[in-house]
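Re: weekly structure request thread

Next one in the queue (735 aa):
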Amino acid sequence: FVCLNAIPLTQGAWTRRPGTAYLHQCKHHDKLARVIPFQYSITQTYILEFGENYIRFFTEHGILTKTTQDITGITKASTAVVTYSGSDTYANDERVFITGVVGMTQVNNREFVVKNVDTGANTFELYETDGTTPVNSTGYDTYSSDGTVGEILEIVTDFDEEDLADIRVTQSADTLYILHPLYPPQTLVRTSATSWTLSDISFTDGPYDSQNTTATTLTPSAATGSGVTLTASAVAGINNGQGFLATDVGRLIRILEGSTWGYVLITGYTSATVVTVTVLATLTNTNAKTAWRMGIWSDTTGWPRCATFADDRLFLGGASLYPQRLDGSKTGLYTNFSPSNSAGTVAADNAVAFSLNSDDVNSIEWMISTEKGLLAGTSRGEWLIRPSSLTEALTPTNISGKPTTRYGSAAVAPVLAGKAVLFVQRAARKVRELAYVFEVDGFKAPDMSLLAEHITRPSVLELAYQEQPQAIIWAARSDGVLLGLTYERDQKVVAWHRHELGGASNSAGDEIPVVESVAVVPTPDTTRDELYMVVQRYVNGAERRYIEYMSKIWEVEDEQEDAFHVDCGWTTIVGSPTDTITGLWHLEGETVGAYIDGTKHVDITITNGKAVFDRAGTIKTVGYFYDSDGQTMPVEGGAQDGTSQGKTKRIHRVGFWLVDTLGLKYGMNAADLTEILERKWGDDFGVSTPLFTGVVRERFEGDYDKLGQVYWRCDGPFPATVLALMPQFEVADGS
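Done, posted below.
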């Protein structure tokens, strides 16, 4: 069975997937990037582009910039020079975004690097995004008026390209918590759409390892303040006998004097027995102290790899030296991990700490909160962490963890779909559904890819869940194929589909574009969820990385001219008919498909970011066409002496139940297809052929074989939905 570039709907139909629209190029053409969702509310959603040492922001199908300024002129020259008005200044090598220019429309909706800034004259030169190639505007149209320029909003990070795959996030209102096993946890705080702050989390008093049991003492040079020297009497009990390490800088230590706990932050390293600290809670005096606890997170021990919120606590876990341990903050205080008050009294709202008790090391790969408790996926199995009873609160003294299933999890963040958690099994080849089952009073994790085990090969890299209008779990496969799983468990719908985007990822044009990352956020009007992707392409002689989003699934009330079945596509809608589209630099030099006012147009080559049509129209779309294919399983209709499976048969006629379909082809296989064209009597000639809804029956030029399969394809810009397929065939019993 084949379902390529098509979506099995929950109701049972096969429909063409919508095309992908171009949003923006990634900052670096030759380096990986990831898209991560940020949902402040259902009407304020963002897509974050994480790349090497940066984060950029997108909302409402546009990139966010700082305050824009008016453009007053752009020269036609071998190096274009922009003149602007305004008090803000630009710096060399900053990246800007230009839009709204009249006349020289070739610069619209493009990102540039600025060079040779003259702040006195309010001018700068435009360079391509590689930072080395001047923008030659001599072949552009002449600047007329209008236009704005704004510096692209960007935040600097420490994440290198190889770190991106291991980033995990969890969100609380306007704060995104960012986790990576090699870096201190961070928060990205949204103050407004154009104001974001990234900072390391300053944890309050914890979490800590178990209390020292050796004879080693710690002696502070002062009980309060910063620049305090902390001297250890020996190295025993510190970092497994190594003593202090330079990588302990940033680590907490909790120290007991009498009956009072204080804690310090290591700020400097001197030797294995001497460090400099800042006292965060008084140490009472400068006596030598035998009761102390080292913090569990640092560059020495590793940092949490995953996080989630549960019972109004922030849970973090999976640090490299404590792979099976998870820690929950104080209730309602997400950065406070105090195990007790200063007197040592443990209250119900104090931080919780728990280690999974198993017979082998289980590194925690993910955590997610459900109504039955906190679920944790480890490399060897899946665990349920909760209090002794669901009616009780999770506290430092009322927490337990039990294994639920023993499949093991890959280092891929799961998705919560309805009441089930779908996660990738350890070998990254199976997607399992972890859900509570009343009949067994426990959890089961059946294999969702059992009937299509081939589809996840070679491995799954990332998951994203689209809830509206169809419930679909999207997955990026390691070879660049986009996978979809139509998932509606209440209706027992579990249907896989495979998507290969139009275009190419190499110079020979024989390899598909590579989908490297996926994320889903609701649209601003809340009518549906949108899938965003990082796509690696080969365009105009060079490797490119674009952020693209999938358009809406076709619905019967949609207008034919609004169909969007191209990839990396672009649509313009104008009041007065025109024969051009500008702003197509992402397709520069490419020959692409075109669609104008509901009709297919001959292919167009993009030159200087412009497409010229052979006729004027108001709604024009360009992009890469793609094939949407379907194929039935071998037919079964019975025979005189039993099943027809394995017997020679011949299909001689086939019927299709279609909805809003045009351009459908059918045949025995992909190499020999016949187009179905349905034009009704009375339809006007010279206008687009209308979409067809109804039943068609056609002769099937099939041969005798033992399978009896029907293949169909829609390869143009039109929608197609197949409700049912009715083959008429004969079986040779051979008796």
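The radius of gyration is 31 Å. The mean pLDDT is 94.
Next request, please.
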